[in-house]
């Protein structure tokens, strides 16, 4: 037990004086295309929980905040030895030096109300046939429930 307590206290003691490192993975030099958000999030999703993300419109940069610094560091470490690809082309992945966390935009109360109404409006279809249908045929299934703003069709998962 004595050795175990020493091991637990060591990292805690070192963390007290340490400045918090970034939880934000910075991805650069990607090409834009359909399902860009999905492609970018898939790069870091295997390393832990994604808590927020920001994809810049005017320049090809994205910031993805992980739940922990360790998760973000694991993703960056992995892509130092393995090429990170978006649409089959290499991208740069590193910890953000500028942002430790991504702040959620603060708006007027009525704007927040509108955002709350948009939450959870997702239809998940599963057990689709492996082939023999078009994207538009699947979209027609969802049309009675409202305007379709975006969709992801995962044929390999039949979803």
Automatic annotation (TrEMBL):
Q: Which UniProt keywords apply?
A: RNA-binding
- The answer, when asked if DNA-binding is one of the entry's keywords, is no
**Which organism encodes this protein?**
Neovison vison (American mink)
Database matches in InterPro entries: MATR3_RRM1, Nucleotide-bd_a/b_plait_sf, RBD_domain_sf, RRM_dom
Name of the featured protein: Matrin 3
RRM domain location: 23-98
List GO molecular-function terms, semicolon-separated.
Answer: RNA binding
Query: Known SMART domains for this protein?
Result: RRM
């Amino acid at each position: 037990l004595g050795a175990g307590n020493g091991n637990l206290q060591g990292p805690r003691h070192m963390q007290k004086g340490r400045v918090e490192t970034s939880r934000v993975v910075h991805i650069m030099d990607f090409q834009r295309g359909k399902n860009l958000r999905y492609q970018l999030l898939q790069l870091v999703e295997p390393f832990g929980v994604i808590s927020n993300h920001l994809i810049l419109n005017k320049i090809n940069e994205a910031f993805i905040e992980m739940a922990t610094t360790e998760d973000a560091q694991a993703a960056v470490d992995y892509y130092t030895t393995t090429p990170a690809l978006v649409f089959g082309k290499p991208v740069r992945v590193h910890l953000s030096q500028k942002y430790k966390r991504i702040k959620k935009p603060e708006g007027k109360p009525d704007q927040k109300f509108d955002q709350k109404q948009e939450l959870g409006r997702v239809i998940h279809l599963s057990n689709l046939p492996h082939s023999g249908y078009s994207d538009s045929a699947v979209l027609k299934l969802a049309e009675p429930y409202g305007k379709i703003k975006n969709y992801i069709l995962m044929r390999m998962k039949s979803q």
